[in-house]
Amino acid sequence: MVSEFVFATGQYDSGDWDSAPLVPANLIDSMARYTSLPVAPTGAIVALASDDLFRFPLVYLTGHLPVRFTDVERANVRRFVDRGGMLFVDDHNHDIDGAFHKTAIDELSRSVGALTQLPNTHAIYSAFFKFPDGPPNTSHELNGWGDNLVHTHLLAAMRGDRIGVLYSNKDYSSEWGYHPDNKRFLSVDNTKFGVNVIVYALTR
Amino acid sequence: MRSLADRARVIAERGARAVAFAALAILFWRALRPPPPSGVEVAGASIERDLARWTTTAPAEIHVRLDAAPSPLVRDWLRALSRSGMRTHWSAARPLRPVAIVAEPTVEPDGGTRVRLASAVGEPVSIGDAAGLIDSLATGGNAELEMATVEGDLRARGTTYTASTIARDTIALRPVLVLGVAGWESKFTIAALEERGWRVASRLRVAPGVEITQGPLGAIDTSRYAAVVAIDTSAASSADAIARYARSGGGVVLAGNTARLASLSGIAAGSVGGRVPGIAGAVASAAPRTGLGVFPVAAARSDAVPLERRSAAVTVAARRVDAGRVVQTGYDETWRWRMSGGEEAVAAHREWWSRLVSAVAYAPLVRRASTGDVAIDETPLASLIDAVGPATSLDAAPRSNTDRSRTTRLLFAIVVGALLLEWASRRLRGAR
């Protein structure tokens, strides 16, 4: 018997943690579409300050607004990452000088240590689908929204050779924020990198 | 004039007299010669000096009184004297207690030495190596120690013995192969083993025909892997190979309900019972595995050894399968223990998995060429008994000069017989 993978969205006291409500269902759909792994049909919402956080070794975190962790949240995030959990944080603003980016980077650095640029040859880019050029670009980047930059790298806080925190300011939350049925209108499924993130978390 | 027969008779009489006188002369010489030493009793302190003397004087019989188990040198010397025909006995001034000490490499990735001591209860014993005292038992008994490093030889010292040994061998430890579905249990099992120092190869199934792999992969055999961990029933495609691997000497860990696979049920410790949920919240308690769901080992085979229980249910059991070993653990979500357990959970989870694997791992011994100058004496009393037999009290020891008496009696009989013969012959022919 293999326990189901449950896609969990992290809830934190500050900011708008629930700004991308369609992302979980879309990634769950992609997991079911491309893999044979048992996946729970609905996601879960877990408070960073709760002990329930440790029931979900992969937690997705997003938002537009400034992020300030409480002491309990900060301690839990540190313990979560140290024990083998992985936090996937995406800046919903796609704005390098935005409030979320600056405050989230600050909070994550205080919680788990400095975030550094992840090489585009990292295993996460070949965990399931191949992304030889690193993180796939989003339409928001290509359209010049936000900071008008194409971010060529993701950031990460490592634990040994494993990613503890994966940080993106590419705004995947907007890119993947649509109903799964609408995938049929895309020539290329843009959630494939989301599958990589999940498969990487499940295997490394 | 005497006849020819009479002359022959006289010659025979003179011959008989000559034989009698020769025998008397031998008896006289034997009476004057100092007797060889016999029944010598030696205190422990002077034993090496006495052994040297006996080696040259070669007494027929010796007796040694010991106040402690002798050194290997003394024991081998006594054995040599005994084998050379010298009757050798020993007794103890006080009861000598048996002891045994062995050191063997642990089947762990970071090496280490496991020391096992068995000693008679009632005598204090200390265990140490060249660096100093390691531990002691106030009243003796049995002990098992695991040490990361050992300096020189290991010694167990009691009042009446000093036993010594050395870690003579090392092991060749190959990677562990983990098979399962990509999921938290596979991920955290691999993490635990890697963090503990095991080299891990893995094949984790993600989709039909798609596996995430790491490490050296190849045929499942003992030349390649120390152990195989089957996390779940996704190991079905390799089940036959795993069973063959176990029978040929490999170590296998069957987790969760993997033993339900037909090919693996033959090597499993028992059948797989219905899943029993964990106790809510217990994963953070002092008995964290009670908080985990488990498939109990049901209908355990007669040769299976239960290693862990929850109430009446066996949760972990092991058995030998031909040349190999198999552990069946019913837990299928130990990752929850690592993530949600108490402060020690990560280390405890890591140690628990490493123990399971090391319990079955195939780890061929690599003999060291030499033990150097270290004198190994793992069982002093048993070796002494092997060398010269069990202890004999001095009074009970066979101390007779049987050979010497027998020769004397024989010579005396010859003297008497020859004289009687000569006397009778002369009287019968009328001579005086």
Alpha carbon gap, first and last residue of chain A: 20 Å
| Shape category of chain A | globular
What is the number of E strands of chain A? 7
- Report the radius of gyration of chain B as a whole number of Å: 37 Å
Strand order of the largest sheet of chain A: 2-1-3-4-7-6-5
Low-pLDDT stretches of chain B are: none
Please give the largest β-sheet of chain B: 8 strands, mixed
Looking at how many chains there are and whether they match, the oligomeric state comes to heterodimer
In terms of per-residue confidence, which ranges of chain A show pLDDT below 50 for 5 or more consecutive residues? Answer: none
Folded structure, characterized:
The complex is a heterodimer of chains A (204) and B (432). Chain A has 6 helices and 7 strands. The radius of gyration of chain A is 16 Å and the shape is globular. The mean pLDDT of chain A is 94. Chain A is α/β, with parallel strands linked by helices and 204 residues long. The two termini of chain A are 20 Å apart. Chain A has a 7-stranded mixed beta sheet with strand order 2-1-3-4-7-6-5. In chain A, strand 3, helix 2 and strand 4 form a beta-alpha-beta unit. Chain A has helices at residues 23-34, 71-82, 99-112, 139-142, 172-175, 192-203, and strands at residues 8-11, 44-47, 58-63, 86-91, 116-117, 155-159, 162-168. By secondary structure, chain B is α/β, with parallel strands linked by helices. Helices cover 31% and strands 27% of the residues of chain B. Chain B is built from 10 helices and 22 strands. In chain B, the strands form 6 sheets. Chain B has an 8-stranded mixed beta sheet with strand order 14-13-12-15-16-21-20-19. Chain B has a 4-stranded antiparallel beta sheet with strand order 7-6-9-10, with no helix packed on it. Chain B has a 3-stranded parallel beta sheet with strand order 1-2-3, covered by helices on one side. In chain B, strand 2, helix 3 (72-83) and strand 3 form a beta-alpha-beta unit. In chain B, helix 1 packs antiparallel against helix 10. Chain B is elongated. The two termini of chain B are 18 Å apart. Chain A binds chain B through residues 1-3, 5, 34-38, 51, 54-55, 57, 80, 82-85, 127-128, 162, 199, 201-204, and chain B through 180-188, 191, 204-208, 210, 212, 232-234, 256-257, 275, 295, 332-333, 335-336, 338-340, 345-346.
